[in-house]
Amino acid sequence: MIIKIDLASEIAIYIQLKNQIIEGIATGQLRPDEQLPSVRQLASDIGINMHTVNKGYGQLKSEGYTLIHKRKGVIINNLEDMKDPSYSEKLEINIKPLIAESICKGLTESDYLNLCKGIFKQLKKGEINKSELNPNR
Amino acid sequence: MIIKIDLASEIAIYIQLKNQIIEGIATGQLRPDEQLPSVRQLASDIGINMHTVNKGYGQLKSEGYTLIHKRKGVIINNLEDMKDPSYSEKLEINIKPLIAESICKGLTESDYLNLCKGIFKQLKKGEINKSELNPNR
DNA sequence: TTAGCTGTTATATACAACGTATAACAAGAA
DNA sequence: TTCTTGTTATACGTTGTATATAACAGCTAA
Questions:
Q1: Residue A46 belongs to what domain range?
Q2: Phi and psi angles of residue A74, each rounded to the nearest 5 degrees, phi first
């Protein structure tokens, strides 16, 4: 998977990194048990500091997306273990300001929902091959 | 309208302020031509610095939500002038990471869309009386 | 005119977050 | 042993956030 960092973006580098890996998991480009590049390797590849990568990796781990495999290093966690029943509560807090803004900016509810559906469609493209037996660990 | 600031929140104060005013506009609690408290008054009311309020107000103005009326101070802009046809493009960039995260966290597309619908319902409650003739200016 | 309010700007300070840099550690692999 | 892994510590510079004091122009009302 190719990671693209925009140094001109207002979004912190470690957040951009984190978002792209999460998106990779959501689309199925990154599968459970798949290993991520080492912090030093990835930092070198995309031309940023090791600690910035480490910060992103650290958050991915603490939020359940990855875990440390003694042999492989950082690997993608099992999809079941990522799930969080209480997530929708945190999500609502993040979505609310976006919807309020959207209303003011002239978007209808249908406009907004269709935009979301489009993003789901886009992300689910890679999900066809996502069916998998639980890999050996 | 009551503004509530959470000093323990990780969200910057001027962003919290901005979000609540935008939400107020979306729900109809704040109507066009209605005046907002002065930067000094609001700062005093909620116990924060004048410049923090000014920063939030400044962004609201530059994003079209408010304008400066020589007599009244800061007032809510006309709803038509708030609209921005290109907004959905910026919106998509903000929504995408949330949807990717939601997929990983086990939410289905229906779960997500229903959550959005619920927020729309909640925000639109105050919209019944939002029908208005263009007020004098 | 004077006094008081408005938004706005300037300057300064303190703190936290971000990103970089160098270095070191324990643990496992070759 | 040598190399790589994640991890931690320390330090530095930059930027963003929030505060504080002060001043300005423009308008309102006494």
A1: 1-83
A2: -80, 125
